[in-house]
Design goal:
Layout (H helix, E strand, L loop, with lengths): L2 H24 L3 E3 L24 E8 L2 E9 L10 H5 L2 E3 L2 E5 L5 E4 L1 H14 L7 H14 L11 E10 L12 E10 L7 E6 L16 H5 L2 H9 L4 E5 L7 E4 L3 E6 L2 E4 L11 H12 L3 E4 L4 H9 L3 E8 L3 E10 L2 E4 L9 H12 L10 E3 L1
Parallel strand pairs: 1-3, 9-10, 9-16, 13-14
Antiparallel strand pairs: 2-3, 2-8, 4-7, 5-6, 5-7, 6-18, 7-8, 10-11, 12-13, 12-15, 15-16, 16-17
Bound molecules: pyridoxal-5'-phosphate.
């Protein structure tokens, strides 16, 4: 082949490959293979233990050669992977947490999944992983929840927890960004998360996130690194860590798997997201919107543990709570910082959180109009 014809061929071929790559994402067909027999009888609605039981089906999609190649909803089953699979060694792995609810008529609805998709793609970008297109994340999720709709529990405060995740699956132990990925969605019925108000230890020895790091992502490593400090504080009788910044160990960031709010006087204050150290919670955003609608002043700004301690001493620390998909809104009973124990007033005296929690819950269970367009019908 003459040199001119060779280059002409590449020139002609390239737009074509782009076209086929585009086609393979935008028209991705999701194959469906259903279970022969449902395991739904194993679900005891009166005793749901978080993360113990998984629904009948899962979605698995494969990414290779720069495109999502296949997607299938199939019976929940173990994966078979080489021990050399890259994410097992280097942690190129990200995940999301979403929930589906049933309205009073029994229609399934998913809470703000577009926000989780956007956050997943922010995590993917930082972790050198491919974007998950809407055709896969949203359409796949809808189909999966539709098929497993009977797994959405209807007992009070119950929901179906949805775990989308992506892992790098090159069979290669060399350290390099992977080229093959799996995107998977599994789901698991969930009851109320924390039975009692939580006890929090303010951590100023270990650090969760630094500027320039991955604190704003839901990368697996953020959670792996928290296990040892969490184990230590559990031995001391606390439930969760409130992380402080990595430079001065002074400004509070977030709790285990929740964003953090305090009510000082009549203002709600939550750490801002200006840096890249705090996960942008979907519940946090919803809570801020609902509080502002109620006329509560919400300040998104840096807040130091000293400011919280001063407010406590002055009798102005009125409420404190965490917000997150798993726990929804979790009231805090106590905050311990060094040898200072800050005990919050009895929850019956709280003016903000109780109403807020009910307001959010009513939207999720379709008991009030969804004026924010947060609920996606399946
Ligand atoms: C570290 C961290 N912060 C905050 C949150 C709360 O985020 P969301 O409300 O989107 O669940 C989570 C849970 O997803 C989390 O893992």
């Amino acid at each position: 082949m003459g040199i001119f014809r060779f280059f002409a061929k590449i020139y002609l071929f390239y737009p074509l490959t782009d076209f086929f790559l585009f086609m393979s994402v935008s028209t991705l067909d999701i194959k469906v293979t259903k279970v022969a027999k449902s395991r739904i009888a194993e679900l005891d609605q009166s005793n749901i233990q978080f993360g113990k039981l998984y629904s009948d089906h899962m979605l698995v999609a494969e990414y290779e050669d720069g495109a999502w190649k296949s997607a299938e909803i199939k019976p929940f089953e173990n994966l078979s992977l080489s021990p050399a699979t890259t994410f097992m060694h280097y942690g190129q792995a990200i995940f999301e947490g979403v929930k589906a609810y049933k309205d009073p008529e029994g229609n399934p609805m998913i809470f703000r999944p577009y926000d989780n998709m956007k956050r997943m793609n922010r995590s993917a970008h930082r972790m050198a992983m491919p974007d998950v297109p809407e055709e896969l994340f949203i359409d796949g999720l809808r189909q999966l929840i539709d098929i497993d709709r009977d797994w959405i529990p209807t007992a009070p405060d119950s929901s179906l927890y949805i775990r989308p995740f992506m892992i790098a699956v090159d069979e290669f132990v060399g350290v390099k960004p992977a080229e093959k990925f799996l995107f998977i969605i599994i789901t698991s019925p969930a009851g109320p998360y924390y039975a009692n108000p939580v006890s929090i230890f303010v951590q100023d020895q270990y650090v969760r996130a630094f500027p320039g790091g991955i604190g704003f992502t839901k990368a697996a490593g953020n959670y792996g690194m928290s296990m040892y400090p969490t184990m230590q504080i559990r031995k001391m009788g606390y439930d969760q860590i409130l992380w402080t910044d990595g430079f001065e160990h002074k400004y509070v960031q977030e709790i285990g798997t929740m964003n953090f709010f305090v009510v000082i006087g009549d203002k709600a204050i939550t750490p801002d997201l200006k840096g890249d150290t705090i996960l942008e919670g979907v519940t946090r955003d919803s809570v801020i919107a609902l509080l502002r609608e109620k006329g509560v002043t919400v300040e998104e700004r840096q807040i130091s543990i000293d400011e919280i301690a001063e407010a406590y001493k002055a009798g102005q620390l009125k409420e404190a709570f965490g917000t997150g998909t798993a726990a929804s809104i979790a009231p805090i009973a106590k905050l311990t910082y060094h040898d200072m124990l800050m005990e919050l007033p009895p929850m019956t005296e709280w003016k903000i959180m109780n109403e807020l929690k009910k307001g959010l819950s009513d939207i999720r269970y379709g008991l009030v109009a969804d004026t924010h367009d947060w609920m996606l019908k399946v």
